[in-house]
Amino acid sequence: MLNGSVIRRVRRAAATTTVVGCAVAATQLAALASAQAAPAAGQARPGGVIATAGELVNVTSGKWLWGRRLNARLPIASLTKVMTAIVVLSSGDLRRKIKVTGAAERYAAEHFATTAGLYPGDVLTARQLLDGMLLQSGADAAYLLAASYGPGRHAFVRKMNATARRLGMTHTHFANVDGLPWPSATHSSSHDLIIMGKAAMKLPSFRAMVSQRSHWVAATSEHHGYYWRSTDLLLTEYRGAIGIKTGFTQAAGFCLLFDARRGRTELMGVVLGSPDGTARFAAAEQLLNWGFAHG
Fold it and tell me: Rounded to an integer, what distance in angstroms lies between the CA atom of residue 111 and that of residue 236?
């Protein structure tokens, strides 16, 4: 179980988030908890997983462990930014310098999105913007990366969808670079997100970024100083956690793509549509505990 300090931190984070969701009714919670889920043959089901959909796999052995509504097409919020990072990292040149524009900050503000708190006029590297996007979930950083690497957001989204097709993500369509419900909702499935997560975690730079609990960028003559703290509380509260990404919109609910390693065993999972932040992290913890015991 998550301890009281974690729950208090989640509540504080929820109080300051720029997008406020509605609570799921008690009857909906019961339905989520009892939704159809198939464990690996001969194993009891993990309990307490309050989520619309999800999946858990043993990355080390390749064994599938658990799933719920694996191919349901659902909004995925900021889990989208994992694909944004894959496209940038595949393009290379992480020392590329990118100027922060007022347009990027206006975009985030107009869509009530989480930001990395960037200052217009600052010049940052692509690597630094990736840290701000993946840890702080900055839509402003995602906007700037897409504008540079597309070039332009529309071209960049085409690259995201081409990469999804190449990976075999057959239930996925990216509408933008950040997971906001604009111009239409990006959708994917639990199974596709595991495919995406595996591809991302094979990239050493990505793996290093998402395992950080926080990241500090010292001020220089080109930019302000920045401090970004990961929105993934598992990194500080679950032994062996090494990433990956949180997400939230009203349509998507609270989502989490997660990875943990203990000894020689690495597990990866995803939960979509949890009713709040506490339930999201608790579901991941339940799945990981069950997976390390049975996987």
Answer: 30
Active site residue 137: yes
Domain ranges of the chain: 4-294
The residue ranges of DSSP E strands in the chain, in sequence order, are 38-39, 53-58, 64-68, 74-75, 97-99, 123-125, 187-188, 214-217, 226-229, 241-249, 253-262, 265-274
Which of 5, 34, 61, 78 is labelled catalytic?
78
CATH number of 4-294: 3.40.710.10
Beginning with the edge strand found earlier in the chain, give each strand of the sheet holding 241-249 in spatial order: 38-39, 64-68, 53-58, 265-274, 253-262, 241-249
Per-residue tokens: 80: 């989208």
> How crowded is the C-beta side of 22, counted as CA atoms within 13 Å?
6
Question: Active-site residue among 137, 148, 188, 274?
Answer: 137
pLDDT in tens, 153-165: 999 999 999 999 9
The verdict on whether 81 is a catalytic residue reads yes
Give the sign of the dihedral formed by CA 19, CA 190, CA 262, CA 208. Answer: negative
pTM > 0.85: yes or no: yes
Catalytic residue among 61, 63, 81, 230: 81
The model's pLDDT over 170-215, given as tens digits with 9 standing for 90+, comes to: 999 999 999 999 888 899 999 999 999 999 999 999 999 999 999 9
> Is 145 buried (19+), middle (13-18) or exposed (0-12) by CB count in 10 A?
buried
| Rounded Cα distance, 80 and 277, in Å | 18
Q: What are phi and psi of 134, to 5 degrees?
A: -80, -35
DSSP state of 187: E
